[in-house]
Amino acid sequence: MLISVQALRAFAAWAVVGHHFMQIFFGFQARGPLGQLFIDKGAVGVDIFFVISGLVIFLSTEGKALPPTRFLLYRLFRIVPAYWLYTVLMALLVVFARPLLPDQTLDWNHLLLSLLFIPTQNPGGYGFYPTLNVGWTLNYEMLFYVLFAWALLFRLQVRLWVVAALLFAVCQTWTGLGWISEFYRSDIVYEFLLGIGIGMLYRRGWFRSGFYRPLLGIGAALMAIYLLPPAPRLLAWGVPSAVLVISCMSLESRFEHNRLLKLLGDCSYSVYLMHVLVLSMGGFLAHRYGIHLYLMFILCVIAIAAGSWLSYQWVEKASYQWLKARFEGEVFEKLSRQKY
Fold first, then answer.
1. Can you give the residue ranges of every domain in the chain?
2. Where does the record place the Acyltransferase domain (predicted)?
């Protein structure tokens, strides 16, 4: 993956961390202009993730004869192990350490649906959130993967339009008919299309390396996010997120050998999954023992950074490689049997 995109993934993940820090530690009560910024705009990290997801899925499948089933399996190998691990950890905390998560309630049926990426009302009564609350975004991701798998049956040039048609059918028509959950009736799903479009333009050579123009693009995108109201989300946060991605990609020549940025991007998924668990424990300890909240936040950041690296190496990377090798080994064995 492009290092510039990896850097932006890291930025998006840590923006969400800041947003939830203000929620868990301060109950979304602003502590100065920076705190208010994280309260109001920190959630834009999700929109950046969605645009990047569309981009990465398009680029990673371009030019490959990848059957839809195999594509879906590889995405499950990449997403599921870490998500299931942190969902189970969240469930265990709710059961055995309830003071850490006083607003959470565990329902076994809801837990099962969460693990299967099926959106349903959280038993705590605050919306369509899975057991691991941040997993709501993965429900959208899984829908996108399923629809993109269908698009792989079509030639590269029309995949954007196939995915767009399928998204509209599912998220507008089917939700309106009551065939699937109203959860999917959100304009945020179309941010994946922005990423696919960026990937198509990138492969056509429309992006030129630069410095000042990309910086102006980044500044304009951040200013739009800051000034515009958050609705409609696709226009207020989705389009500026796409401009951020394009601008960062135009700076790739300045980042392409930066190992730190690559590492930060690699760890961003684990940062996203684990940070609420760490912040919840940190917030509880800070209020229980009178520890300065910002000192505890620094300790939480260190714990999240270290934990996400370990999680990437020993959970995400290791499980993906093992599952992929096992699957490809079985496929090879079946083909060998058929041949002989």
1. 1-42+259-340
2. 4-310
